[in-house]
Write a structure and sequence with these properties.
- The protein has 13 helices and 15 strands.
- It is α+β, with helices and mostly antiparallel strands.
- The chain has an 8-stranded mixed β-sheet, sandwiched between helices. Strands 1-2-3-5-4 form a 5-stranded mixed barrel.
- Strand 1 and strand 2 form a beta hairpin.
- The structure holds 4-amino-1,4-dioxobutan-2-aminium adenosine-5'-monophosphate and magnesium ion.
- The site of 4-amino-1,4-dioxobutan-2-aminium adenosine-5'-monophosphate has 24 residues, from strand 10, strand 14, strand 15 and helix 13.
Length: 462
């Protein structure tokens, strides 16, 4: 007999004479003549009620072992439920405890704090909240591929180990096999990275963009979807040292087209989650964020706002609010400003574009004013930036000038410059932080709770 998932059993259209269910005991209640067991297998939020009659041959021995957390296997009949709140239940004909769990099982009761659950990240997927988070994560990963594949984008696997710092922010994790206590030295007394594994300094990638650009300049429309790493020592609810990023890159595309795609993409993911993860989203709106569903609908219904950086600075100045970090033209927008724009001023996702050249990486296309670049950040209520992107500088001479300003070596980026030497085209792309998108869709407030095993400063357990 093949296994029936709880999800399929609960959605059955007719009773079934013989089903096999496997999963974990959530709760058990014993009556005189039988026990009720709630079996959950993670296939959906709900568990299924199993009734084990005391007349079962092994009832006494097995029921004694069937504590919360134990894994069990049940064969029996799927019948209409007598109880309330569920359509179907299972009358066990055989009932076996596969793996016991005793009273030390940490998920005995409901209502643990998120902090506690982070410490047991190996068990938290068995809780309602984390089961729901990781089902949504899986579904949206699928939806990412669907969105781009339907549009004819080619999926590119950007390297994880790289020698270049795409964002130029110096937040790189070094990859080395040198002995840290006895590294080989040059005659000048520096560590000799020529003797390292890659014969040069190498790092974990902060972004697959530069490599994606090479593929866009051949295959036209491409995207990456993979892990990226930043040694940013910021202990916030929105930063992780390891996170997943989706980076589309389009040849023959400008900033306008880039912003349009970003909006369509974000809306597609929200729509997909609403359609395919309805029960999980309902759970979030009950227990995590009461306004979640209204907010998602609101976001789907109207166009995102767009405003230039210069306008944004004027709006912030005219707000009359006092800021922890006052800003002037030329300063980075801080989280408080980004959230003000999305939450209070526009009350809707807003794309801020044309940032000062000095704030942004070397690869962004310089505008005619010479002072701003064709950058864009998508800011959403509750989180702030979820997307960063730009049109790329396709003119060789301007790119070289930018690289000189950023003190980047043309020798190191010879291949990137080649894209401008041979058949250069206007092109543009962006990066969506997958975890930030998940926070937006689930209402979960901390990035540590939407990634299976969070890597943050001081934490790499599991
Ligand atoms: O704005 P960022 O740094 O842009 C890039 O990396 C570009 N190369 C993307 C491109 O144009 N192809 O990062 C893009 C997004 C951010 O908007 C944010 O959502 C997410 O990546 N992100 C992080 N998410 C979690 N933890 C961190 N430390 C993050 N840093 C960036
Ligand atoms: Mg950014």
């Amino acid at each position: 007999m093949s296994r029936t998932l709880v999800k399929d059993a609960l959605n059955a259209t007719a009773a079934m004479d013989a089903v096999l269910l496997q999963g974990w005991v959530r709760t058990r209640r014993d009556a005189k003549a039988f026990s009720f067991i709630e079996l959950n297998d993670g296939s959906c939020l709900k568990g299924i009620q199993v009734i084990a009659n005391a007349t079962l041959a092994n009832y006494t021995t097995e029921i004694a072992k069937a504590h919360t957390g134990a894994s069990i296997e049940v064969r029996g009949k799927l019948v209409p439920s007598q109880g309330q709140g569920q359509k179907w239940e299972v009358i066990a004909e055989t009932f076996t405890v596969v793996g016991e769990a005793d009273a030390t099982y940490p998920l005995q009761k409901k209502g643990h704090t998120l902090e506690f659950l982070r410490e047991i990240a190996h068990l938290r997927p068995r809780s309602n909240l984390f089961g729901a988070v990781f089902r949504v994560r899986s579904r949206l990963a699928y939806a990412v591929h669907q969105f781009f594949q339907q549009k004819g984008f080619v999926y590119v696997h950007a390297p994880i180990i790289t020698a270049s710092d795409c964002e130029g922010a110096g937040e790189l994790f070094r990859v080395t096999t040198l002995d840290p206590s006895h590294p080989p030295m040059t005659e000048e007394g520096d560590v000799d990275f020529k003797k390292d594994f890659f014969a040069k300094k190498a790092y974990l990638t902060v972004s697959g963009q530069l490599e994606a650009e090479t593929f866009a300049c051949a295959l036209s429309n491409v995207y990456t979807f993979g892990p990226t790493f930043r040694a940013e020592n910021s202990n916030t609810s929105r930063h992780a040292a390891e996170f997943w990023m989706i980076e589309p890159e389009m040849a023959f595309c400008d900033l306008q087209g880039d912003m349009d795609l970003a909006e369509e993409f974000v809306k597609h993911l929200i729509r997909d989650a609403k359609e395919h993860c309805a029960a999980d989203l309902e759970f979030f709106s009950k227990f995590v964020d009461k306004d979640l569903l209204t907010r998602l609908d609101f976001v789907l219904e109207r166009p995102f706002q767009r405003c230039s950086y210069t306008e944004a600075i004027a709006i912030i100045a005219a707000s009359g609010k006092t800021w922890e970090h006052p800003v002037q033209w030329g300063d980075n927008l801080q989280s408080e400003h980004e959230r003000f724009l999305a939450e209070e001023h526009f009350k809707c996702p807003v794309t801020v574009y044309n940032y000062p050249r000095t704030l942004k990486p070397f690869y962004m296309r310089v505008n005619e004013d010479g002072k701003t670049v064709r950058a864009m950040d998508l800011l959403v209520p509750g989180i702030g930036e979820i997307i960063g992107g730009s049109q790329r500088e396709e003119r060789l001479d301007v790119l070289r000038e930018n690289m000189a300003q950023h003190k980047l070596s043309e020798k190191e980026y010879w291949w990137y410059l080649d894209l401008r030497r041979y058949g250069t085209v206007p092109h543009a792309g962006f990066g969506l932080g997958f975890e930030r998108m998940l926070m937006f869709v689930t209402g979960v407030g901390n990035i540590r709770d939407v990634i299976p095993f969070a890597r943050t400063p001081g934490t790499a357990e599991f």
